[in-house]
Amino acid sequence: KNGHQEVTPYAIEFSESVINSSVRSTRSGSSSLSNHTTTMGVWGWRSTLDGQIVNETQFRNKSVQFKDSVWQYTPKKYWINNSSYRFNPYPPYSQQASIDSLTGLISINGVRLSGANTMKDAPSATLSNNFRGTTDTDWMVARGGQTAFGGILTPVDFTMQHILSKINVSVRFTKGFEDENFDLVIDSLKIGPLLSGGSFRQIYESNTIGNEPEWVPDSTQSDITLYSARNTSVDTIKTYILESLVIPQEIEKTKTVKLYYSYNYSDGRKECSAYVLELDKAFGARLKSGYSYGLNLIFEPGRITFDASVSDWATMFESNRYLK
């Protein structure tokens, strides 16, 4: 029993979406999409339950904006009875994006990053996980899309996933330093050279990312270097000095972490030191789409160690190695 296709008086609405959450009822806090961006692009198709209409385009990279505390667009589209819908969104909205209408897999061309660091001016004990207001865009997609039926008439929500990589660096010293007669200061830290550009080609429909890369690097663009906050005092409390988005890419031996630090003694003396770490020794051979890479540098008497962590921005696992 399919019934008659009839336009209802109810507009298709989009409710608040969440990021990297399996609980769709979560609609507030840092996981809310509107906390990160005020636009998203949406594709949508309608098919009738009797199969007479298949994949009729309803939304073609439609710009949906967060205004007055709601996600809205014009002109309005209305639910049609006895129809099924599928939606594929990505934030933020851009004309750089396209989609394969059959698979629902999204592509985003010509992504460029500048190496923005959320910790540049204000090192913090916690990560920001939010690049709104910086020069770099935190691109996302809803990998599984969303489906709905024309007779339900409820707002459509999405679960978004980050598609860039992210690198975080923190510092601390062990308790053995507390009685020393100097202040330990991170003068600067830099990571690079890293690719600044690339294009995204979605392969995976779930947040489980396989070995086939989703990013095509653009080697014609100039490389970038990530820079930490400068002149940061080190304490026993872990402090983040760098949090930056990165194009997913292979990690060659030329990509390094360079750390510059100094011991400022109470009698006015200053000893400056430097250390170089090959990036692949911390994170392996490749930065993957949707993963966050953490490097915690730990100053101990007579040596520096580090914890290298990899996270899908939802689940953390760690591996520990020593700087040689």
The shape is elongated
Unreliable stretches, pLDDT < 50, 5 or more residues?
22-29, 315-324
Q: Strand order of the main beta sheet, please?
A: 5-4-3-7-11
Helix content: under 10%
Q: How would you characterize the largest beta sheet?
A: 5 strands, antiparallel
In terms of DSSP E residues, the strand content is over 45%
- Rg for CA atoms: 23 Å
Number of strands: 24
Summed up, the helix count is: 1
Q: Quick check: average pLDDT?
A: 89
H/E series, N to C? EEEEEEEEEEEEEEEEEEEEEHEEE
Report the end-to-end length measured between terminal Cα atoms: 71 Å
Structural class: mainly beta
Task: Characterise the protein shown here.
The chain is mainly beta. It contains one helix and 24 strands. The protein has one helix at residues 280-283; strands at residues 7-11, 18-19, 39-48, 56-67, 70-72, 78-80, 83-90, 97-99, 106-112, 140-141, 146-149, 159-162, 165-173, 182-194, 197-201, 215-217, 224-227, 232-233, 239-246, 256-265, 270-278, 292-300, 303-311, 316-322. The strands form six sheets. The protein has a five-stranded antiparallel sheet with strand order 5-4-3-7-11, with no helix packed on it. Strand 4 and strand 5 (70-72) form a beta hairpin. The protein is elongated, with a radius of gyration of 23 Å. 33% of the residues are buried. Mean pLDDT is 89; it is low at 22-29 and 315-324.
Task: Write the SSE topology.
Layout lengths: L6 E5 L6 E2 L19 E10 L7 E12 L2 E3 L5 E3 L2 E8 L6 E3 L6 E7 L27 E2 L4 E4 L9 E4 L2 E9 L8 E13 L2 E5 L13 E3 L6 E4 L4 E2 L5 E8 L9 E10 L4 E9 L1 H4 L8 E9 L2 E9 L4 E7 L2
Parallel strand pairs: 2-12, 13-22
Antiparallel strand pairs: 1-6, 3-4, 3-7, 4-5, 7-11, 8-9, 9-15, 10-12, 13-19, 14-17, 14-18, 14-20, 15-16, 20-21, 22-23, 23-24
